[in-house]
């Protein structure tokens, strides 16, 4: 059974119309994944040696303190990014396969997700470090496995919560409130967390409790999925109530305003677009990696971070510009759509997002004003130059996005092509070089000014640039329509 | 109005369409009939400049569609679901099309009032996004969308497919009334000979990419066409 499923997956990959690009993407994904895994191992080391060497506390109780936060954050991330493998199960429903086989397959598939096994790259090294440092063997095993098992429980919980946005937000808000209370030492959730989790270490046999929770969780989930194994229940998410709405003041700007309104509706209503918007929000926190490695102390690496901190939405959304409209591209091509207005609408949306990010990034001023100014410089370059380059690379973007799919399609389809990889040069390398060099010779103020100047030049020439992109779009029209039609 | 000259489309040595010359006049209602794979949708896609012709051209008001874009002001089309925007409500979709065809919201609302019966109360104010509508209702949205702003040319691919019997009758009445009361040119493709002969003044039959009949509709047309397709079967 399983091998037949795997065979189908292979076929869908190798028979895709964008095979060559897919292979390159897989390689990049693999590299990216390796990078993440290496970082995870790094986290394990950090989690152990930071408290031990710097704070002189027992790492086990230190980590235990924050485990509750960690597990809830894990659930949160899963909820918004982990894809439920419901879509490809549909064709099998009417075949001669036992329902319980399908249910098991589905549960099994959630464990094959990166969100389930990626964490092991933190936990297992941590276990090795514990044993290496002479911690109690039974205690270490029990403690680590308790964490692993509980993260599996969070996987089950995620399945049960699927589609219940409100509940997840409430959990998130409660957690933030508790974090606040914790910080001001009013109610200490971390002490409670420490009390519970260190128990697993002290009395190894308490591991029975998480195991029991997991078993119970498994049966509940199995029952839940089985009950909801119908097209109008769990396999298809609930239909949202449609609401006719628009942002009034945008209507004053004619076609441009209409396009912006449509894009905002898309981001609000389509799961695929929504998860991309949320993902780009997370980029705001990319700057926190500053603390992870001395490599980020250099001027050009800080600018690199600044480009992403302020440009998360710009890059995530911008490089998918025609793709987002792929499901109705033929309509757009037969309507009297002025290309330039269409592009401008996207452009306005993106630079507004950059502007907002630049304001929100003010939090980094707590680290240092110099860092914040560096990020501002990145933001200015994003507004003036990158906003247009990203649209340019979009002209070659031929990957369709199925907006109507209600599944979470984050990370399912990738939107890189060779040309968009090439575009990284002007997007990243050029500003990094200019900023790094100017700062080295003339100091931060001059460096910020140099990028602001580049941004201004780009901004002033934007009309010319748009004309150029429009020409490209027209040239690529037929092949884009064709590519958007089939996968 | 629409001129087709020496038009052909070849996919890897396989000729899917080859039409020497064909003219559609203003105000006509034309039915395009043919089997699956006859080239109906290919012809529509060429008229709408969605695919590139291998040779020849399509011109609307003497302007080639792949050179000038003026035709976009004149044409309303519904070919398939790629002409719908799934995440919008039907109203938002209609307003969007209206905006691009120079209509205000009020005008669109006024226009939509004519179709309350056609929509059967399932589309306007239904609190649903287009993606959540049934196939039949999607089709209704698409068809009415193509009519918004009274374009001079209206192109509908298989409008009768997927519609329930009552709606098919309503659609036939709609097309007949519309073509009587306006000078829009209708271009409709269909497998259904009865529907097509009922509403169209002119029938164009294509088979394996070639034009085989081009006739004015008369009381005998339906019988003729049925005979023609029956002969096709017996030849094989």
Keywords, separated by commas or semicolons:
heterodimer, A: 487 residues, mainly alpha, 21 helices, 72% helix, B: 236 residues, alpha/beta, Rossmann fold, six-stranded mixed β-sheet, globular
Summarize it.
The complex is a heterodimer of chains A (487) and B (236). Chain A has 487 residues and is mainly α.
Count every beta strand of chain B, where a strand is a DSSP E run of 2 or more residues.
10
Q: Count the beta strands of chain A.
A: 0
Q: Which word captures the global form of chain A?
A: globular
- Summarize the amount of helix of chain B as a percent range: 25-40%
Write down the CATH class of the largest domain in chain B.
Alpha Beta
Work out the strand percent of chain B: 25-35%
State the CATH architecture of the largest domain in chain B: 3-Layer(aba) Sandwich
Share of helix among residues of chain A? Answer: over 70%
Largest sheet properties of chain A: none
Average of the residue pLDDT scores of chain B: 90
Spatial gap, N to C terminus of chain B: 38 Å
Tally of helical segments of chain B: 8
Q: How do the strands line up in the largest sheet of chain B?
A: 6-7-8-3-9-10
Give the oligomeric state: heterodimer
| Number of structural units classed as domains of chain B | 2
Strand content of chain A: under 5%
Describe the sheet with the most strands of chain B: 6 strands, mixed
* Parts with pLDDT < 50 across at least 5 consecutive residues of chain B: none
Structure classification of chain A:
mainly alpha
Fold and architecture overview:
The complex is a heterodimer of chains A (487) and B (236). Chain A is mostly helical. Helices cover 72% and strands 0% of the residues of chain A. Chain A has 21 helices and no strands. In chain A, helix 3 runs parallel beside helix 7 (137-161) and helix 3 runs antiparallel to helix 8 (165-183). The longest helix of chain A has 37 residues, at 19-55. Chain A is globular, with a radius of gyration of 25 Å. Chain B is α/β, with parallel strands linked by helices and 236 residues long. Chain B has two domains: 1-74 and 154-236, 3-Layer(aba) Sandwich (Rossmann fold), CATH 3.40.50.300; 81-151, no CATH class. A six-stranded mixed sheet of chain B has the order 6-7-8-3-9-10, with helices on both faces. Chain B has a four-stranded antiparallel sheet with strand order 2-1-4-5, covered by helices on one side. In chain B, strand 9 and strand 10 (210-216) form a beta hairpin. In chain B, helix 2 (90-100) packs parallel to helix 5 (135-147). The termini of chain B are far apart. The model of chain B has no long low-confidence stretch (mean pLDDT 90). The chains are: A mainly alpha (487), B alpha/beta (236).
């Amino acid at each position: 059974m399983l091998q037949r499923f795997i065979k189908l997956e292979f076929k869908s990959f190798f028979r895709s119309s964008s095979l060559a690009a897919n292979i390159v993407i897989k390689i990049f994904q693999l590299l990216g994944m390796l990078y993440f895994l290496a970082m995870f191992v790094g986290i394990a080391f950090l989690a152990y040696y930071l408290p031990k060497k710097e704070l002189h506390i027992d790492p086990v109780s230190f980590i235990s303190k924050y485990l509750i936060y960690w597990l809830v954050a894990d659930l949160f991330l899963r909820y918004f990014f982990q894809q439920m493998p419901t879509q490809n199960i549909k064709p099998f429903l009417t075949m001669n396969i036992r329902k319980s086989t399908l249910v098991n397959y589905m549960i099994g598939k959630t464990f094959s997700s990166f969100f389930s096994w990626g964490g092991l790259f933190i936990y297992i090294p941590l276990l090795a470090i514990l044993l290496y440092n002479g911690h109690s063997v039974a205690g270490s095993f029990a403690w680590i496995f308790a964490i692993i098992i509980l993260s599996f429980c969070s996987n089950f919980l995620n399945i049960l919560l699927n589609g219940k946005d409100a509940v997840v937000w409430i959990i998130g808000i409660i957690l933030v409130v508790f974090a606040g209370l914790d910080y001001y030492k009013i109610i200490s959730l971390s002490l409670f967390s420490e009390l519970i989790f260190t128990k697993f270490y002290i009395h190894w046999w308490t591991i029975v409790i998480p195991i029991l929770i997991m078993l119970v969780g498994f049966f509940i989930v199995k029952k839940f999925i089985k009950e909801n194994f119908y097209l109008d229940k769990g396999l298809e998410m609930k239909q949202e109530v449609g609401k006719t709405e628009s942002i009034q003041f945008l209507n004053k700007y004619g076609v441009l305003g209409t396009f912006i309104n449509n894009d905002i509706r898309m981001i609000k209503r389509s799961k695929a677009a929504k998860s991309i918007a949320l993902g780009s929000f997370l980029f705001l926190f990319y700057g926190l990696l500053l603390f992870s490695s001395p490599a980020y102390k250099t001027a050009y690496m800080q600018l690199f971070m600044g480009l992403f901190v302020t440009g998360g939405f710009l890059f995530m959304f911008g490089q998918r510009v025609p793709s987002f409209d792929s499901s109705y591209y033929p309509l757009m091509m037969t309507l009297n759509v002025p290309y330039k207005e269409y592009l401008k609408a996207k452009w306005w949306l993106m630079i507004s997002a950059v502007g907002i990010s630049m304001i929100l990034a003010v939090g980094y001023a707590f680290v240092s004003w110099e860092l914040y100014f560096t990020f501002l410089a990145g933001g200015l370059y994003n507004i003036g130059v990158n906003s247009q380059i990203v649209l340019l690379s979009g002209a070659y973007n031929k990957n369709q996005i199925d907006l109507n799919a209600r599944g979470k399609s984050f990370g399912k389809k990738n939107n890189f092509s060779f040309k968009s990889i090439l575009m990284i040069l002007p997007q990243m390398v050029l500003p990094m070089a200019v900023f790094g060099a100017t700062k080295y010779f003339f100091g931060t103020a001059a460096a910020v000014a140099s990028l602001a100047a580049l941004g201004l030049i780009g901004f002033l020439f934007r009309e010319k640039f748009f004309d150029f992109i429009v020409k490209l779009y027209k040239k690529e029209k037929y092949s884009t329509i064709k590519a958007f039609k089939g996968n | 109005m629409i001129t087709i000259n020496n038009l052909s489309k070849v996919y890897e040595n396989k000729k899917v369409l080859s039409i020497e010359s064909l003219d559609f006049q203003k105000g006509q209602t034309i039915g395009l009939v043919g089997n699956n794979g006859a080239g109906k949708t290919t012809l529509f896609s060429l008229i709408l400049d969605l695919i590139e012709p291998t040779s020849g051209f399509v011109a609307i008001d003497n302007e080639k569609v792949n050179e000038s874009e003026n035709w976009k002001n004149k044409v309303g089309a519904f070919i398939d679901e790629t002409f719908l925007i799934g995440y919008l409500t039907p109203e938002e979709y209609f307003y969007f099309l209206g905006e691009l065809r120079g209509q205000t919201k009020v005008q669109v609302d006024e226009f939509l009032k004519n179709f309350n019966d056609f929509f059967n109360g399932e589309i306007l104010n239904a609190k649903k996004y287009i993606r959540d509508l049934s196939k039949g209702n999607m089709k209704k949205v698409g068809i009415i969308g193509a009519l918004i702003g009274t374009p001079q040319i209206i192109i509908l691919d298989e409008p009768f497919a997927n519609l329930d019997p009552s709606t098919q009758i309503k659609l036939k009445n709609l097309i007949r009334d519309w073509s009587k009361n306006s000078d829009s040119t209708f271009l409709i493709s269909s497998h259904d000979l009865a529907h097509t002969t009922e509403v169209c003044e002119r029938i164009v039959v294509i088979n394996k990419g070639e034009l085989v009949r081009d006739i004015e509709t008369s009381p005998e047309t339906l019988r003729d066409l049925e005979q023609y397709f029956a002969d096709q079967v017996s030849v094989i």
